[in-house]
Specification:
Oligomer: single chain
Distance between the termini: 66 Å
Largest sheet: 7 strands, mixed
Number of strands: 13
Strand content: 25-35%
Radius of gyration: 26 Å
Shape: elongated
Number of domains: 2
Length: about 260
């Protein structure tokens, strides 16, 4: 069971990092055909990827503006534009720390995409295009179908557009989960879908749990009242994501009974 939890966690974690990389601009470079290639060879222009924050939305639903770094870009849509929602298990602070709100890759990453597209000709462009295609395919595994109406000002998006047109082929709307909160204390009660933890201040917190909740048992084979628990949970739903449980502290030794002789 623990091995299954580990594999599942690694798989979810890897996909979440992919989404974070796309939002932060780290997963793959912006693709563009080098001068003299693409149009001249009769091939379609390579799709570009833009990431940013939605700044405004047209009332007629034909376009929306995103802020990319310090610039504002208008993205056009048509009947062929596909919208997706991707739920990202990370906080706003996590994304801002990694992505600096779409201002570009970190210094350690800068130059990798540039090298792929310069000085190496058609093969380099095709390799980069294939990498982007594979990563977008993985991203779609996390995504659910959406519509233009799901766009909201202030949300992060990853947009695949055709160069020189800014016409969107695919729009990934990134929904960030709320930051998890933590509670620690003594387990008061456990049911088949809830756990109640008594904190040090004697207040009780009851959390829900389901098949996706991960229980980490330290030296235990089951969860019982009286044990010590630390739970990370979604404050909006009160659903526990991870519950770490360890044995209850040993009971204090009884005080020795005074002995003496009577006179």
């Amino acid at each position: 069971m623990n091995r299954l939890f580990t594999r599942k966690a690694l798989r979810i974690g890897a996909l979440a990092l992919l989404v974070m990389g796309l939002v932060a601009g780290l997963a793959f470079p912006v693709l563009a055909a080098p001068k003299g290639e693409g149009k001249n060879e009769g091939r379609p222009e390579h799709p570009n990827l833009l990431r940013g924050t939605v700044a405004s939305i047209a009332a007629d639903k034909t376009s929306f503006d995103i802020k990319v770094g310090e610039k504002q870009v208008t993205i056009k849509v048509d009947d062929n534009t596909k919208f997706f929602i991707v739920k990202l298990p990370a906080t706003k602070a996590d994304i801002e720390k990694e992505g600096r709100d779409g201002k570009g890759p970190r210094d350690s990453e800068r130059g990798r995409g540039e090298n792929r597209g310069k000085g190496k000709g058609k093969a380099a462009v095709d390799n980069a295009k294939e990498l982007a295609k594979n990563n977008l395919g993985q991203l779609r595994r996390l995504a659910k179908p959406a519509t233009f109406d799901d766009l909201k000002v202030g949300e992060h998006v990853v947009v695949q557009v055709m160069p020189n047109e800014n016409l969107a082929k695919m729009v990934f709307i990134v929904k960030k989960a709320p930051a998890l909160e933590r509670v620690s204390g003594t387990i008061k009660a456990v049911t088949n879908d809830s756990i109640t933890i008594t904190k040090k201040d004697s207040t009780d917190v009851t959390l829900k749990w389901d098949a996706h909740t991960r229980f980490v048992l330290q030296g235990l084979i089951s969860v019982q009242p009286g044990q010590i628990a630390t739970a990370a949970f979604n404050p909006e739903t009160n659903l526990a994501k991870v519950v770490m449980v360890k044995p209850a502290p040993p009971a204090p030794a009884p005080s020795p009974t005074p002995t003496g002789t009577s006179t």
